[in-house]
Amino acid sequence: MDAQNSRFNRNLLIILIMLYILALAAFSYANWSDDPGVNQLGRLLLNLPLLSIPLVLVGGSIYVLALGWRAHVAGNALDPRLAKIIHWAPRIAALLIIFFLSLFSLDVFEMEGTPLELLGGFLIHNIPSLVLLLLLIFAWKRPVVGFAAFLAAAALFAIFFVRSLESLPSLLLFVLPILLIGVLFYADWQWCVPPPANGADASA
After folding, report:
1. DSSP per residue, 33-60
2. Calpha distance 58→100 (Å, rounded)
3. 204 domain residue, yes or no
4. Pairwise CA distance, residues 46 & 42, whole Å
5. Which of 61, 67, 143, 156 could form a disulfide with 189 if both were Cys (CB 3.0 to 4.6 A apart)?
């Protein structure tokens, strides 16, 4: 059984790494075809680590959820190490996606305007990040809140940012990571529940 689990984990990891490489190549090619040139090549190299943030979040979330789901369906108690990973995964992933979203607001400082106008634009562009940060604060010790809040946030992002086929990259870079964070909070809520203590069973 352990050998079968190890083989499944290895194969899943290989598939997710391949999908990550393909997605990164697709985004790079799309950006390059829009404006080929030496300067664009430099920008692509700088953007690769940034694009990796949501793509790694998606792949990592799927991997963790798959391992937890297999153990949960089999009726086995989660390994303490896996339970700890599931507990921290949505919180760390939420901080990373908030950081990723906030990076887009830096473009404001390339525009012309007074410092006050630039600051106002920066704050306005950071409203989604601030809302997600507020949700994370409420959900930090309440995974059920995180589950509901991040599912709702993913739905709102899909409504506002995915309106045509041209918006599909937004689905992968923004909506899917936030959706998976909500699912990770669900896993923390439902799968990481500690078993009742023996003393409680005996006194019942």
Report:
1. HHS-SHHHHHHHHHHHHHHHHHHHHHHH
2. 13
3. no
4. 6
5. 143
CA distances 95 to 12, 39, 40, 177, Å, are: 25, 31, 29, 11
* pTM of the shown model: 0.86
- In this model, does residue 38 exceed pLDDT 70? no
- Count of domains in the chain? 1
Specify the range with the lowest mean pLDDT, choosing from 32-36, 70-74, 108-112. 32-36
**Residue 79 domain flag:** yes
More confident residue, 114 or 87: 87
Look at phi and psi of residue 75 and say left if phi exceeds 0, alpha if psi is from -120 to 50, else beta. Answer: left
How do residues 127-155 score in pLDDT, each as one tens digit? 889 999 999 999 999 999 999 999 999 99
Place of tokens 């909070």: 185
What is residue 142's three-state secondary structure?
coil
Find the domain containing 148 and state its range.
Answer: 2-194
Instruction: Answer yes or no: are the C-beta atoms of 78 and 187 closer than 8 Å.
Output: no
CA distances from 120 to 103, 160, 176 (A): 16, 22, 29
Evaluate whether residue 153 is within a structural domain: yes
Answer yes or no: is 7 within a domain.
Answer: yes
DSSP string, 172-186: IIIIHHHHHHHHHHH
